[in-house]
Structures are given as structure tokens and as C-alpha cells.
Amino acid sequence: MEVEMKIRGLMMDPVSNSPIVLLKELSSDVVLPIWVGMYEANAIALEIEKTATPRPMTHDLIRNVLMGLEAEVKRVVVSELRDDTFYAVIWLECKGKLISIDARPSDAIAIALRMDCPIYVDSEVLANSKINTAQHEKVSSEEISKMLDALGDEDFGKYKM
User: Fold this and answer.
1) pLDDT for 103-118, tens place per residue?
2) CATH number of the domain that 105 lies in?
């Protein structure tokens, strides 16, 4: 089953300094973070902010090609989570034929924004992501606790409280 999502925002991961796209389920408060590349995050941000560029960027070029071919993007789906990597499919219709195209979620989302089509996530991906997130949060909390326990007054330097 597919769950419709919307873009909740973009943020930077403070640990890896990588951009994250936050997708939010329309009917609940469930949020799915997807780590993306810097260029893809920029492409998504440009479209969210409706910022025009002097020349077409890659995702704008794809939109122009699709429009020139009279193809309609029906939806994009984050379809799989395998080995901590998300996979997506762009579903488009051209001349009455439904076509699926394998894509990175970041590219699929950037195209969905430009083509004004819905974004979905497979419910299994959401379930698996929650499990992975919970496991990572547990590890992170344990690591943070150990690190804080090991700190002494001298580690805080001039920022003592």
C-alpha cells in the first residue's frame, strides 16, 4: 500500500552535515527523513522557493523534455529501503502507456515538485524506516550518554555552567 506524503522541509544533519528531505504523511504526523546529496537538495529548495535560474537546471530540463513529449508524471513513489538506501519510481503516462522509471528519491522528489504530482511512500518502507530510526536513535542515545559520563570539568573549558 502507498501512503501519500508531502515535503515538510529540508534540513542539515548536524552529524554528517548532509541535507535531509523530510516527507510528512498527509493523514498523520509520521515523518520520513531521506538523506540526499547537496545538489539534489539545492534543486528541491529552488523549486520549493520558486526560484528561477537563468538557464534550466537538470530537473528543469527533464520537466521540459517530458512536457515536450506530452508525458504526464502521475506520481512518484519511494518504493524500497534496502541496505539503508532508499529507492524510488517515477510513474509517467505517455501516449496512453504507463511507464515506470527507476530513480533516486531525491531526483524523483525534485521532478514531482516541478510536475506538480503527488509523492507516495510504500507502507513497508515507512515501517522499515521506523524500525531503523528507532535502532539508530537507541545507539545514538547510548553513545551520547557514555560520552557525557566520560567528560570532566576540564573538557568544558571556558563554557562552564
Assistant:
1) 999 999 999 999 999 9
2) 3.10.690.10
In a domain, 145, yes or no: yes
Reading the block at residue 112, the C-alpha cell is 514531482
Q: Is residue 161 part of a domain?
A: no
- The pTM of this model reads 0.79
Range of the domain at 50: 2-150
* CA dist., res. 129 & res. 120, Å (int): 14
Q: Which three cell numbers stand for residue 35?
A: 538523506
Q: How many independent structural domains does the chain possess?
A: 1
pLDDT (tens digit per residue) in 90-145:
999 999 999 999 999 999 999 999 999 999 999 999 988 865 554 444 445 455 44
